[in-house]
Design brief:
Elements (H helix, E strand, L loop, with lengths): L1 H30 L14 E6 L6 H4 L1 E6 L7 E10 L2 H8 L2 H7 L12 E9 L11 E5 L7 E5 L4 E3 L6 H6 L3 H11 L7 E5 L4 H12 L3 E6 L4 H6 L4 E4 L12 E6 L6 H6 L1 E9 L11 H14 L6 E4 L6 H12 L7 E6 L3 H8 L7 E5 L2
Parallel strand pairs: 8-9, 8-11, 9-10, 11-12, 12-13, 14-15
Antiparallel strand pairs: 1-2, 3-4, 3-6, 3-15, 4-5, 5-7
Helix pairs in contact: 3-4, 6-7
Bound molecules: NADP nicotinamide-adenine-dinucleotide phosphate (NAP).
The site of NADP nicotinamide-adenine-dinucleotide phosphate has 32 residues, from helix 7 and strand 9.
């Protein structure tokens, strides 16, 4: 009797919680909105920006508009943006997938200006900012960067731009945080070690090849036929064409597998690791949603679980966007150890074309949008 009563009450509570969840979800969905309908206050300065008010394809939703120019507070730096480089998640913000909506707004995107990796010139500073002055050339990461001006917190991800780069190249550098931290902090890559980089020709991979070389490692890059020369030119000691050869079938053994694709099984990858080696689970293939994206994601998550019981480590990696490491990347760039593999630039009016290319998942190196 008692068990029956407990079951009855459990069922009632579960139904109530479900109903409550449904109501909360419904209200959250319908109250999710953005500032698209809000008029610019009279007297406010205006600027050009790319906006998307609804989710959809780049051609349908990205519009070049006039919006209100931001004004920096005491702790902020006003940057005149000169270039924005697209990165992996930029396309994912537009499409309106379920995970995308949970992150960026349920019914409509909350932040209506996309783009994040920027470079530009300091236009003005708040009264508490001491590290930067008007005229400084800077680069960094700030949501809503596809605009003529952005305000960045003085403690935010902003650093002086490497002197030897164009604005478009400098905007491409923040992606290298993924390469730097994955190799330095997670893999703890040492000089003389052998590293294989799966996905060596994309934004993160092209930097990873150069950073691994800068650390003194012996580098093997995996890419398709059309990118072999690019990856070699970045310093890779060996290249493997994935359209012709399976990198998990060779005789070579690696200290580190830096995996930006996760398209091979756990056993296949463990086979090519030296005893005690490490696989950094850093990505799920090229940008955009493709038929293999979910299986790559599954490959990433299951490998991390399965390696708990073995000698070789498979470690999930998440980037930490911070000012200090932007400085490390600036120094590596100025010393000539790394250089952005920028292969294509677009004017602001062709932003949708840049997104379409990114979403193919087969971008060569980095691409950037110039803001004039
Ligand atoms: N963990 C983190 O914090 C973090 C942060 C940012 C990005 N990521 C991950 O890093 C990965 C790479 O990002 P990205 O910005 O470099 O992307 P991306 O620029 O879009 O990468 C495109 C490259 O991926 C290559 N590629 C596609 N399929 C491949 C395959 N089966 N084997 C080898 N290469 C393949 C393409 O080469 P081909 O044209 O030759 O196929 C292309 O050059 C993404 O999966 C992303 O999830 C992780």
């Amino acid at each position: 009797m008692k068990v029956k009563r407990i079951l009855k009450w459990t069922a009632r509570v579960a139904i109530l919680l479900l109903l409550l969840g449904f109501v909360i979800g419904f209200v959250a969905y319908w109250t999710s909105t953005n500032d698209c309908g809000r008029p610019i206050p009279a007297g406010a300065e205006r600027m050009k920006a790319i906006r998307y008010c609804e989710y959809g394809s780049p051609d349908d939703v990205l519009k070049l508009e006039q919006i209100e120019k931001p004004v920096p507070n005491d702790n902020q730096i006003l940057v005149r943006v000169r270039a924005v480089s697209l990165r992996f998640y930029d396309g994912g913000m537009l499409g309106g997938s379920v995970p995308g909506r949970l992150l960026f707004g349920l019914r409509k995107p909350k932040n209506t200006t996309p783009g994040s990796d920027f470079s530009g010139t300091v236009e003005a500073i708040g009264k508490d900012v001491t590290e930067f002055k008007p005229g400084d050339e800077v680069f960094g990461v700030r949501a809503g960067a596809l605009a003529e001006y952005i305000c960045v917190r003085r403690n935010g991800a902003i650093a002086l731009k490497p002197a030897n780069t164009s604005f478009e190249q400098a905007a491409s550098i923040p992606t290298a945080l993924v390469s730097l931290q994955g190799l330095r902090d997670t893999a703890r890559l040492q000089a003389g070690q052998k590293v294989l980089i799966n996905g060596a020709s994309g934004g993160v991979g092209t930097f990873a090849v150069q950073i691994a070389k800068a650390f003194g490692a012996e580098v093997t890059g995996v890419c398709s036929t059309k990118n072999l020369d690019l990856v070699r030119s970045l310093g890779a000691d060996h290249v493997i064409d994935y359209t012709k050869e399976d990198f998990t079938k060779g005789e070579e053994r690696y200290d580190v597998l830096y995996d930006l694709v996760n398209n091979r099984s756990f056993a296949e990858r463990r086979r090519i690791l030296k005893p005690g080696g490490i696989c950094v689970l850093a990505g799920i293939g090229g940008s955009g949603m493709h038929k293999e994206t979910f299986s790559n994601l599954a490959g990433e998550l299951t490998a991390s679980l399965r390696s708990k019981f073995g000698n070789e480590k498979f470690v999930l990696f998440g980037v930490d966007i911070n000012k200090k490491d932007l400085g490390v990347l600036r120094d590596l760039t100025e010393s000539g150890k790394i250089a952005p593999a920028l292969t294509k630039t677009y004017p602001l009016t062709e932003t949708a074309a840049a997104y379409n290319y990114l979403e193919t998942g087969h971008v060569q190196g980095k691409i950037a949008i110039t803001i004039e």
